[in-house]
Amino acid sequence: MSRKAATVALTAIAPISWGSTYFVTTEFLPPDRPLFTGLMRALPAGLLLLALTRKLPRGAWWWKSLVLGALNIGAFFPLLFLAAYRLPGGVAAVVGSVGPLFVVGLAALFLGDKPTAKSLLTAIAAAFGVSLVVLKAGAALDAVGVVAGLLSALSMSAGTVFTKRWGRPEGVGALALTGWQLAAGGLVLLPVALLVEGAPPALTGTNLAGYAYLAFGNTAISYFLWFRGIGRLSASSVTLLGPLSPITAAVIGWAALGQALGPVQLLGMVIAFGATLVAQTAPRTPRAPKVESFSSSEKNGQEVSMDLEVSAVRR
Question: How far apart are CA 118 and CA 66, in angstroms?
Fold first, then answer.
């Protein structure tokens, strides 16, 4: 297996894991607490990674971490869970599947990556395949849920593009960068959750198990792999791994909830998975992101090349 193929395979673990989010949200968590759920997913995971890496941002990376944390975590999580609570899982998945199209546009604007016919067609094909997999006849649409789903996709897409644009500081691995973003996003969510939803609800053992899974397996490990992939692959390649999430959700629904998978759903899986594979075969090598060292950032803002070797820290 080539190095790129190995990177793609490891990065793909993240959206596959995220495919379980809707199932865990509806089956294990207390209802109607999207902000609290986002907080419990982000902050414990961020604090754990900060404790493991023992590195804090310096210089401009304080505000960059806050921006990335807000986009990837602080705004994305509550919007995602709001969509999950207010929409059927299939509708929410389809709304979220427009993310690759957002990334194509944002990458052109902020990374200078000119949209290609291939990137646009694979993004459209992936969204179409996802719609075949998850949409049911007569699926209900809730305006607030649809807007929340679109904004969550836009937030995550912007976070992906800016994570690619800024890279990470010299000598800082993907694990530390993940911890910074999760902690920042969790701290953004904390006061908002308390003000909007009030005190935390009484939690059962089932609730605690669900939150533990979301925080550590579904978030700490998965986001580490995701941000590591962003550093090594193009933004469009990474985001077009996203359709693996609703495909996984459909398989979980079939296996755990007895939901039917007919010929149309299977065709959709083939289309979405095919688009994902095609997106990983771009002939050109993506540009390595620029990275600021602490010393150059603090003195004159110069940027240096990023060391792409990731610290071998295991959770």
Answer: 33
